Amino acid sequence: MRIVIAPDSFKESMTALEAAKAIEEGFKHILPEAEYVKVPMADGGEGTVQSIIDATGGTLKELMVTGPLGKPVKAFYGLSGDKKIAVIEMAASSGLDKVDPKDRNPLLTTTYGFGELIKDALNEGVEEILLGIGGSATNDGGAGMIMSLGGKLLDANKEPISPTGQGLKDLYSIDISGIHPRVSEVSIRVACDVDNPLTGKQGASHIYGPQKGGTSEQINTLDENLSHFAQVIREYMDKDIEHTPGAGAAGGLGGGILAFLNGKLERGGDLLVDMLDLEEKIKGADLVITGEGGINHQTIFGKTPIAVSQVAKKYDVPTIAFAGCLNKGYDNIFDEGIHAAFSIIPEFSSIEEALSSGYENLKNTSMNCAKVLKIGLK
User: Fold this and answer.
1) Which residues, 6+ apart, have CB-to-CB distance to 27 below 8 Å?
2) 246 and 302 within one domain
3) Could you tell me the CA-to-CA distances from 212 to 19, 146, 196, 361 in Å, in that order?
4) Any idea what the Cα angle at residue 303 is, between residues 302 and 309, rounded to 5°?
5) Which among 362, 276, 263 is positioned nearest to 10, based on CA atoms?
6) 355 in the same domain as 253
7) What's the pLDDT score for residue 347?
8) Are residues 60 and 17 in the same domain?
9) In whole angstroms, how far apart are CA 102 and each of 63, 97, 208, 315?
């Protein structure tokens, strides 16, 4: 029997690799002769770097970069085992958690540090870059990223604008002749699970600005500034990204990546499935096991368990899922190729207790599932 174990992380409790090990340990106790293939997964958000490192035997690189408010912050990105792929989470440099709640103002934040991480990866000689852009504190359309990579965003006096959402109002011209030469040489793929346009009522500022601390007045200003940014991009680069689905992701960073880096926006779960060659690993398997911290009615919208189950469904391989908790509406996953789902929490406990005992609970739940499976094999 061949069992593929492909969970996401159980946030604040286990990394995806730790979850995979817990599942394997539980199953092996009952089915020691089975072949187990562990594939730690992610969906492009938090934990993606660690998943790629764990799956490929890669390394983590740490460096100081410019934080969202312009102050130095310690950030990181991952390199695959063969050094050909860099995996960068924008939240590591420009995330909302890098800004104290009392200081949150999306007019003033920048993606400059995110660009510094990309620049360092380009200098490492990678051939492909995977960008996870969730959790941003920014609304600058990627202006900071572009400027840190050598692009010039200039005002009417040919001086650099402020690389912030507020600074976009001063943009007059664009010059990308000095952009890092390797930008055009690498493949840039972006894990993006939203389809918001750059501007408008469904755009970056109106939908995501409030959670970044934006007031109604600031949000209107930011939307106008992004619209102006899109107009200058049309004029100087002959690209129209204003209404492109996904351009509004991460405060317009999705649009900046499309316009300046020729990046490709993809569903995060599907991107990781492809990058980790999950389809080849599932072919010929007898069972697939996936999971993450919580499964609910939103899981079907591109989350890891569904990305995994849809590959398994393609090859008629049954899939079961584990979760810290199964929330209201979770049963819609059964229409997407998952055959059974189990909560791993055995008794009433505090959140702290549940998180700290996650590994043991997942191992024990896996062992019980294996016992049921063994009954069916007799």
Assistant:
1) 3, 34, 36, 289, 366, 367, 369, 370
2) no
3) 31, 21, 16, 35
4) 90
5) 362
6) no
7) 82
8) no
9) 26, 12, 17, 51
289-to-182, 281, 294, 330, 337 alpha-carbon distances in Å: 39, 13, 15, 17, 12
Q: In what order do the strands lie in the sheet with 287-295?
A: 35-38, 2-5, 287-295, 319-326, 340-343
What is the C-alpha to C-alpha distance for residues 217 and 377, in angstroms, rounded to an integer? 64
pLDDT digits (tens, 9 = 90+) for 197-236: 999 999 999 999 999 999 999 999 999 999 999 999 999 9
Longest Cα–Cα distance in the chain: 80
**The two three-digit tokens of residue 52, written as one number:** 């790629």
Structural element, H or E, at residue 217:
helix 216-237
Please tell me the distance from the alpha carbon of residue 247 to that of residue 241, in angstroms, as a whole number: 7
Task: Give the residue from 223, 291, 345, 352 showing the smallest Cα distance to 41.
Answer: 291
Cβ atoms 291, 323 nearer than 8 A: yes
Taking the C-alpha atoms of residue 38 and residue 222, their distance in angstroms, rounded to an integer, is 44
159 with 132, same domain? yes
Q: Is the pLDDT of residue 301 over 90?
A: no
231 shares its domain with 113: yes
Q: What is the CATH number of the domain that holds 359?
A: 3.40.50.10350
Q: Cα–chain-centroid distance for residue 369?
A: 30
Q: Which domain, by its residues, includes 351? A: 2-40+277-377
Dihedral of CA 299/301/305/311: which sign?
A: positive
Asked whether the beta carbons of 88 and 42 are under 8 A apart, the reply is no
**E strands of the chain, at which residues?**
2-5, 35-38, 59-66, 72-79, 85-89, 128-132, 152-154, 173-175, 187-191, 264-266, 287-295, 319-326, 340-343
Query: Is pLDDT above 90 for 42?
Result: no
CATH of residue 146's domain is 3.90.1510.10
Q: Are 224 and 169 in contact (CB under 8 A)?
A: yes
pTM for this entry:
0.86
Who contacts 126 (Cβ-Cβ below 8 Å, separation ≥6)?
A: 79, 83, 84, 85, 86, 186
Contact at 8 Å (CB) between 289 and 322? yes
